[in-house]
Amino acid sequence: MNFPILTAIMLAPVVGLLLILLIPEREELTIKITAAVATFVSLVLAILAYVLFDHGRGGLQFLQDITWVPAFGINYSVGVDGMSMPMVLLTAIVIFTGVFASWDMTKRVKEFFIFLLMLVTGVFGVFISRDLFFFYLFFEVAVIPMYLLIGIWGSTRKEYAAMKLTLYLLVGSAFALIGIIATFLYGAQQLGHATFDIQTLATVKYDLGFQKFVFFLMLIGFGVLVPIWPLHLWSPDGHVAAPTAVSMLHAGVLMKLGAYGLIRVGVFLFPEGAKYWAPLIAVLCIVNVVYGAMIAMVQKDLKFVIGYSSVSHMGYVLLGIAALNTLSLNGAVAQMFAHGIMTALFFALVGNVYHKAHTREIARFGGLAHQMPRVAAGFLIGGLASLGLPGLNNFVAEFLIFMGSFTREQSLLGGLLSYRILSIMAISGIVITATYVLRVVKNTFFGPRKTEWDHLEDAHGVEMVPIVVLVATLILFGLLPSLQIDMINSGIAPLVAKIEAAKAIGGIF
Amino acid sequence: MIKYAWLIPVFPAVAFPIIIFLTRKVRLLSALVAIAAIAASFVMAVGVLREVFLLGVTMEKPVEYAAPWLQIPGLLKIEAGILIDPLAAVMLLVVTLVALLVEIYSVGYMHGDPGFSSFFSYLSLFSASMLGLVLANNYFMIFFFWELVGLCSYLLIGFYYHKHSAARAGLKAFVTNRVADFGFMLGFFFLFAMFGTFNFRELAEAIPGYQNTGFLALAAALVFIGPIGKSAQFPLHVWLPDAMEGPTPVSALIHAATMVAAGVYLLARAFVLFASLPGIMLLVAYVGGFTALFSATIAVAQRDIKRILAYSTMSQLGYMVMAMGVGSMTAGMFHLMTHAFFKALLFLGAGSVIHALEEQDIFRMGGLYKDMKVTASTFIIAALALAGLPPLAGFWSKDEILAAAFDHGFTGLYILGTLVAFLTAFYMFRLIFVAFFGNRRAGLHGHESPLTMTIPLLILAVLSVVAGFVGTPFASHGFSTFVYYGEPHHVEPNYAVMLLSTLVALAGIGLAWLLYGRPSDVPEKLATRYRSIYTLLVNKFYIDEIYMWLFRRVVLGLSEAFNWHDRHVVDGIFDGVGDLTRISGQKLRFLQTGNLQTYALVIFTAVVIIALWMAAPVLGGVIQ
Questions:
Q1: Is pLDDT of B623 > 70?
Q2: In this structure, how many other beta carbons lie within 10 angstroms of the beta carbon of residue B530?
Q3: Cis before residue A466, ω within 30 degrees of 0?
Q4: Across chain B, what does the average pLDDT equal?
Q5: Chain B window 572-601: which residues touch A at a Cβ cutoff of 8 Å?
Q6: Contact list, B570 vs chain A (CB under 8 Å)
Q7: Distances (CA, A) of A214 to A177, A183, A204, A211, A323
Q8: What is the reported pTM?
Q9: Which of B70, B162, B182 sits opposite A367 (nearest CB)?
């Protein structure tokens, strides 16, 4: 196929952005419609690409190459495989629904949508890049608008949160940058020519010391974004402060950039480094899962609950990466998708409530299901997805991660610990998650009607778009997981082949 | 018909979205859709059972077919599969029949409830999930539907979500079951790690030859945690009494007849895993036996009609689990079937009473027999069946359990079981004498319920009488040659056991009559005299309080500690790094004094140091 579909997916928001620049500021509805149309085009193209993707063939598809700086081997080269295609679809769904979740935005509407579209362009760019240089470039494109979006349109300690988030992410990306440059130099020396092409760089034999060193840099750099404990604190603060659509993108997609980078660049290029550091990831991710979930249990602000639940759920993704086998990596990618959709749903709903009630304090609510039955139903479905109920996308993902890590027979710390024990600890997270999620549902939506909230209107009209689209996605992939896993597996297979071909080395402990 | 058995759960599954999206506004149509769907399932279930007979499908030669659901080549194959053997066929019939009757009953009971349509949509979703669970051919699928029935239970317990107590009870049920499911999930993960499959038949072939019985025992023990939660066995029983917050038809269908029995059904499905492990079997038997006794004693001191029945359900489930543990799957499943009928009837009867009086405390009722003849007489039939009087259904099935315990040499459990039979008869007839006889209490007047409610009662009453005959020694042990594990075997009729349990039941009824059948102050005197025991029973041995304390102090306490740690220690360190940068910048800027002499001094000093350092080789020993 000659139509550069991936570039089109990425450029649709850019076109939308440029059009919005031309629209007068007071034409708020036109601006919103433009943004909706632009992201709808991305969504349709992403669905098309997803359907057209041939997972029997596997590998990278929809390739497009444009030479940019030959001297350094920098090319604009894009393509997706079974791992990145779901991420592109995720991004398209989240931004499309995010625009509708921002429909009631009234403050500096024009700039808001410009930055939002810029942000999503960067995210699309990361997921479709096959060139490490562009990968990094788009990565930064995604981070910068985030600062402005939170700093200007946010709530609750927004300047602090925006600065904190930006510093964490920039410091993280500095680590990743050092790793990327080191890889580039090492690759150029070994190959005899300069290249940033990830596939080519993957053919280089990196020596063990180098792998250990660079993977560690990547672990810090991308790990901040995941976020791996103890580098996670930017995320709850950032989530809480960000406006609805930005929270959705932020938790729904931005965190996945970290995990995606860790797999695509870290594990793929440095499988031995990954094997060396995997036990550390495995231990830290348990802290993510259990500690994150327990902290979520005692939060008083709805957004903080979801913020910490993200920390907890992304721990599962890390467990999937740490176990380094087919099942677990399939699960990790599926979990990235599922968590993205689920958390976007949560933020859309909380945004809806917050916009009308001007508070997110759980203790002030109660019985909201009387006034907002649709929001309550959506929130409950999100909660059920979050606690891993069968029939919803997250269950399949978590199940594969658990299966993968559970069946990995490797002991750590001289037999004191094993992947199996760590898996059991991680699986205990399903109990804690059920407890805090359903407690929040109960305290917010159930109980006697409170007349002080009688003025709240239930979600209606365009507000229903995010709820319907996101819930439908969770159910679709929950009931028919092979639509998702067959594709992911076609991308994971070469990765696992590479991991298995790599030298067996002992982990850090 | 067996070929189309997969349609059985599909009918109600389709009814669910139809009601939610289409017929929500038209209440009676919603009920009609739900009832039509479950009626279709019931007809198919009858057809399946008939074919199982005609085609000679047995426990050894089941019919199985499957479609792939999720595959990762070479590593994982998960099927959406159907397994039909006599066990599944019987269970299908029980579930569809009780569900059908309960849904018809609900048309009357829920009449006028604002959530009428939602109620029927949830019941449909429940029926679909429960039937999927029954048909599952592998652990994964059974877990899948196991969770979904749990969801429906949560939704229906919390159906009156405006009540704090209902919302709390739903949460409690879900979380308690989650603890159990955690164990169950680990259990079949271990099985998968050992055998690489979830399929029941493949596992049944592989397990007997497996050498590492330690691992096998671990897996079995973990799988058993699932039924402990779902079938409300000690120590995860705490959710079931609170689950009575749901509408009464739900209590009948989900929390008495079907879903809570899913744990027992799982034990039957997984029987091959347990059968080879005597230690685990003993554990199963004692957990069941203990629960049977434990909850029967609590039932004696309760005042709420639904709670008495709930503790009775726990107790009877304990019997079934005990039957599995002593090695008689036949007896366990037989009792599951008869119990489904008479316990559903008891709950629906209680519902009829509550519908008329809007009162659940039996001591505020009285003389109901005169006003509600159908309800009262069917209720008494069910109570007699539960108490185990011949020739009613409960007699045959309970007797089979007691005889199995006795024959397999579990004398202790046999005695315990007989004691439970006594208590059962006692607490049921305490309820009956207090609520249905004696004088009417002021202000509460019963009236008979509408036909949609009484007809299901009558049908269930007939079943409570006759359902036991399929398993009597005089019907050539029909049931035990149909549903069994290993060899079809049945216990020889043990007339001594039969006689003793009948006498014990009569004694229980007699004692109830002595204490509650006529005006008497003995119960109060007893309660005063043995105050500590009485308080202990009324408060259900304080198990809820202990769990609540653990949750509040340990779990929430730890969570608060983590929260503090995150906000102050971890964040403190990173914010500290930020502050350090800022503060050191502030301090360092004083180096830029703008004073030329200072700069000159610094430059001069530096030059001297560098010069000395460079000159070091020349100066030789002077410096070194």
A1: no
A2: 12
A3: no
A4: 88
A5: 574, 578
A6: 230, 233
A7: 10, 8, 14, 5, 19
A8: 0.91
A9: B162
